[in-house]
């Protein structure tokens, strides 16, 4: 243990504790900007400086550890002045257009400048910044980058993609795409984790809200919307709503006020995905001698982009099943268009996703199988929908819950847990068991694939055969798993991969709580929703059963193949 004094408090903490942590233990908050625990502890912004008696210079608290007998001042006049100057220097190279910034009100730099009483930027520099693309789903505003390095670290250490790097020198130092010139030409998976870890507005998703407002105003268009599983756990966060109040039914009410004609649930098509992907897996198992294993889930477009870009030799092992987002779009513009008796082109199909890779996925040229343009016309992130609600002056606090529409608004508990790491695997195993044995298992029989660890393994008995599965979340873990498979160190039958840590609950399109990840809390909500759902099995979803009876025939039928499966090489 180490004894020291912080702001007059005598304390004792374990060796190697950082000054930042030691202060926090005594209830003293040292402000930070670039710091992310275990990920970015480099003192780049120099906001966390403190004074240590006996030294002229100040020290950063996030990456210096305490020593026996230290006397530390975290809030002396000298500390406050230097901190203020450091933030002014950051602001001097920052495009301070706060009122029109997507992160206004949720920006750590804005917050700290306010906290430090900075109302003027005395050393403002005019720096010519490169212009980024406006069309790619991930947008970088160079003029807003504060060189905190968080995006570099998260992309490299957590996601294993290494897209960003520091470029140039002196006042022109900035963060840009490593090796290639354009982000569009890089192997960026579009997971969006660099956005959710950016403390300012230097990274954001392409804003597609205007396209949706236009469709909502068009009397010729029937605008349908699907709500992804993980969106229901998070949409209320930025609106100040408690999770138990911010239900999917209250979101449905807000979406009706926005003018959407039919409010549906991606959980419906998650159940459909299980029927197709589960059947495909059992079919592949029948040909174990000739098929390559493991089969990988294909519902996360960040993962699909990653594997195609970084480990293309595994592309054939992806399930051919489309993601629930795309299955929903194809069904909306075929089966549902038929129910309505309208041409598919009349339907404008919107999805609300916790994800930015979904914007890329819906625009893949082969994802238009229903014949009415793109099967999903626009994919919005959770954050964009919150902005639409705000800009339309809808007050969710005053809304009563409303039902989703039928028949595509019905989803099972197995569908809802898609939004959590392990959820797709668990849902698939619940139905695979039924398809093999003709009997339902205990719905919680496969709970060992739950939990936040980045790489989980389990074995289950499926009618006498042992099925070995793995579940990974975070692309860095996915890369490690693929390397181990390549080297023959591990072998599995079925692997679920989600690009974002914790699965879609921690998706790159979710509300941002700078430096604090909400994935685990949101995952708990999803499992709670599964527990209380009357339906726990995808194969018991009455709307899915009816869709097969009236339209698709059976899982893996010709029509199902045409609408619900894809060629990942296209
Ligand atoms: Fe997901 Fe999905 S679970 S990828 O995370 O599979 O984005 O929530 O909508 O499509 O269902 C995201 C979430 C989805 C899809 C579903 C899957
Ligand atoms: Fe890296 Fe993901 Fe950001 Fe792309 S979206 S640069 S892969 S963190």
TrEMBL record:
Cellular compartment(s): Membrane
Cofactor requirement: [4Fe-4S] cluster; [2Fe-2S] cluster
Transmembrane portions of the chain: none
Organism annotation: Wansuia hejianensis
Occurrences of domain 2Fe-2S ferredoxin-type (ranges): 1-78
Top-level taxon in the UniProt lineage: Bacteria
Stretches assigned to the 4Fe-4S ferredoxin-type domain: 179-208
Keyword NAD in annotation: yes
UniProt keyword list: 2Fe-2S, 4Fe-4S, Iron, Iron-sulfur, Membrane, Metal-binding, NAD, Repeat, Translocase
InterPro entries: 2Fe-2S_ferredoxin-like_sf, 2Fe-2S_ferredoxin-type, 4Fe4S_Fe-S-bd, 4Fe4S_Fe_S_CS, Cytosolic_Fe-S_CAF, Fe_hydrogenase, Fe_hydrogenase_lsu_C, Fe_hydrogenase_ssu
4Fe-4S His(Cys)3-ligated-type domain span: 78-117
Family annotation (NCBIfam families): FeFe_hydrog_A, FeFe_hydrog_A6
Family designation: Belongs to the complex I 75 kDa subunit family.
Presence of the UniProt keyword Ribonucleoprotein in the record: no
Predominant location: membrane
GO molecular function, a single term: 4 iron, 4 sulfur cluster binding
Name of the molecule in the record: Iron hydrogenase small subunit
A cellular component annotation (GO) from this entry: membrane
């Amino acid at each position: 243990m180490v004894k020291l004094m912080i702001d007059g408090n005598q304390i004792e903490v374990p060796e190697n504790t950082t000054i930042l942590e030691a202060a926090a233990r005594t209830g003293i908050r040292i402000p930070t900007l670039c710091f992310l625990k275990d990920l970015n502890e480099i003192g780049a912004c120099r906001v966390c400086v403190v004074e240590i008696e006996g030294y002229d210079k100040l020290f950063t608290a996030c990456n210096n550890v305490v020593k026996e007998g230290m006397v530390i001042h975290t809030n002396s006049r000298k500390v406050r002045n230097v901190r203020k100057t450091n933030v002014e220097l950051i602001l001097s190279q920052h495009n301070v257009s706060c009122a029109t910034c997507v992160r206004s009100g949720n920006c750590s730099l804005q917050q700290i400048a306010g906290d430090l009483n900075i109302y003027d930027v005395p050393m403002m520099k005019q720096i010519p910044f490169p212009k980024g693309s406006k069309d790619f789903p991930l947008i970088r505003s160079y003029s807003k980058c504060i060189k905190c390095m968080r995006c570099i670290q998260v992309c490299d250490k957590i996601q294993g993609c290494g897209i960003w790097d520091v470029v140039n020198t002196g006042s022109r130092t900035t963060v840009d795409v490593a090796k290639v010139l354009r982000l569009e030409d890089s192997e960026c998976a579009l997971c969006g984790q660099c956005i959710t870890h950016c403390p300012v507005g230097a990274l954001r998703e392409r804003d597609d809200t205007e396209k949706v407002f236009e469709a909502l105003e068009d009397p010729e268009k029937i605008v349908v919307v699907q709500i992804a599983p993980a969106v229901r756990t998070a949409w209320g966060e930025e609106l100040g709503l408690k999770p138990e109040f911010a239900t999917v039914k209250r979101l449905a009410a807000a979406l009706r006020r926005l003018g959407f004609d039919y409010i549906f649930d991606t959980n419906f098509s998650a159940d459909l995905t299980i029927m197709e992907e589960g059947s495909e897996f059992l079919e592949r198992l029948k040909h174990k001698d000739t098929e390559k294993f493991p089969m990988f889930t294909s519902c996360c477009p960040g993962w699909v982009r990653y594997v195609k870009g970084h480990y293309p030799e595994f592309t054939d092992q992806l399930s051919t099943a489309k993601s629930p987002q795309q299955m929903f779009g194809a069904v909306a513009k075929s089966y549902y268009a038929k129910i309505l008796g309208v041409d598919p082109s009349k339907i404008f199909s919107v999805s609300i996703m916790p994800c930015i890779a979904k914007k890329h996925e819906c625009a893949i040229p082969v994802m238009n199988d229903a014949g009415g343009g793109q099967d999903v016309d626009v994919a919005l992130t959770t954050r964009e929908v919150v902005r639409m609600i705000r800009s339309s002056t809808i007050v969710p606090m005053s809304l009563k819950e409303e039902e989703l529409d039928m028949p595509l608004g019905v989803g099972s508990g197995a569908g809802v847990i898609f939004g959590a790491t392990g959820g797709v695997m668990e849902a698939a195993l619940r139905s695979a068991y039924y398809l093999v044995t003709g009997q339902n298992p205990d719905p919680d029989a496969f709970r060992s694939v739950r939990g936040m660890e980045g790489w989980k393994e389990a074995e289950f008995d499926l009618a006498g055969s042992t099925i070995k599965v793995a579940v990974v979340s975070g692309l860095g873990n996915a890369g490690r798993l693929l390397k181990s498979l390549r080297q023959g160190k591990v072998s599995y039958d079925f692997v679920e991969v989600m690009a974002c840590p914790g699965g879609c609950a921690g998706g790159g399109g979710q509300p941002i709580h700078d430096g604090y990840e909400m994935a685990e809390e949101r995952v708990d909500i999803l499992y709670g929703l599964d527990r209380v759902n009357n339906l726990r099995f995808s194969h018991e979803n009455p709307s899915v059963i009816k869709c097969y009876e009236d339209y698709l025939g059976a899982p893996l039928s010709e029509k199902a193949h045409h609408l619900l499966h894809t060629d990942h090489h296209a």
